[in-house]
Amino acid sequence: MKGKDLINIGIFSAIYFVIVFIVAMLGFIPVFLPLLAVLVPILGGIPFMLFLTRVKKFGMIWIMSAIMGLLMLLTGMSWPPLAVSVVSGLIAELVYKSGNYQSASKAVLTNGVFSLWVAANYLPLFFAAEKYWSTRQNFGQDYIDTVTKLMPTWMCPVMFIVAFVCGILGGLLGRALLKKHFEKAGIA
Amino acid sequence: MDGLFTADIENRGLVLDPRTKLFVIITLVIFALGGTGSDIAAVRYGTAAVSILPAVLLLTAKQYGKAAVFGILFVAVKAAQLLLLPYITGAALSILGICCMVFVRLMPGLIMGAYMLSSTTVSEFIAAMHRMHIPQQITIPLSVMFRFFPTVLEEFTSINTAMKMRDIRIGGKYAGRFIEYRLVPLMVCSVNIGSELSAAALTRGLGTKVRRTNICRIGFHVQDIAVLILTAGLYILWILGMIGVVI
């Protein structure tokens, strides 16, 4: 990897994160919170597919993924996103590499795998829930039941599946826009 | 988003080392958000104390408004959680309870993140990353990214205005084009600006094999040691609680 590749990673991470940031603004309204796993992979698919046209060397997707996780840590979203993004980024890298860094269908799949880090943001809400409640028995069983009903543990894998599927959709959307606009403009 | 690593160096009050701030964030994430050691009473009090630390740090950084809002809100919510919740039941309990829980767990970390981003400059952050031996492959993209954020946002605002004029907005005549007509121009101009930026950065020697120098003076001072001792105290309480010295 040369300096130019690293700079490209920085530029596309910035565009991607601006989208994350704008979508996350919606997340302050609690109802929209689960929607982050839907909107970020779909909208983020557009810059990410363009980014993939620049990826020719091993490690670029992995680094971008790790940076996303790092940013989540810096903005106080906790460490699970970083842990997940390092692993899912490597898998995404390997998926795209298996298509020799040019296969269009592999690129769509890559966006699906790459998007998994978004779902990891929800992990702290599920993590150690039982331990958390064991110290708060004085709130009443009533309260504990209501909260666990709203955030059942099975929602956790569902979030990851939602992020993956939306990542595929976002990849397809990005692919379509790539054909429609960017190739014509000569930047894809 | 302005205030993302764009600290006003002349007038920002007490300066902490970026590594100290990072340590506080990680501690808050482990204890406040992760709920580690919340079965030990002493750790619970300690966590509450460290959770209020971001407000104090915002004060030292002369961001009084933010500090007041967060400090008062946190104390109020924490008090409501401790004093009010045991006495109410039913639907009110679950709604209030969830709000309290999410706020008390999530906000300290987020506010600390906001403090970190608004009180550090990019150069300082990169210098700290170098000292922590983070490889160039991570620091270069990060520094480019932080340099590029304001540009992307500025472009996005202009594009947004232009599209509103053409009635391409939510609830407008052409709402269907809302996303495409914003993201595509944003991407095209970002890529163009990006290639100029990368030419400029390469001219300044980014990405060469040699070790780059940095004029930022970072290091641990009295204020860092105070914050570090306070935060590290939480870990000590936790260990003491685990072996049963405190409860």
Can you describe this structure?
The complex is a heterodimer of chains A (188) and B (247). Chain A has one domain (3-182). In chain A, helix 4 (80-98) packs antiparallel against helix 5 (104-114). In chain A, 49% of the residues are buried. Chain A is elongated. Chain A has helices spanning 3-26, 36-52, 60-74, 80-98, 104-114, 116-120, 123-126, 129-134, 141-150, 155-185. Chain A has ten helices and no strands. The model of chain A has no long low-confidence stretch (mean pLDDT 82). Chain A has 188 residues and is mainly alpha-helical. Chain B has 247 residues and is mainly alpha-helical. Chain B is built from nine helices and no strands. In chain B, helix 3 (53-60) runs parallel beside helix 5 and helix 4 (64-84) runs antiparallel to helix 5. The two termini of chain B are 42 Å apart. The model of chain B has no long low-confidence stretch (mean pLDDT 83). Chains A and B meet through helix 1, helix 2, helix 3, helix 8 and helix 9 of A and helix 1, helix 5, helix 7 and helix 8 of B.
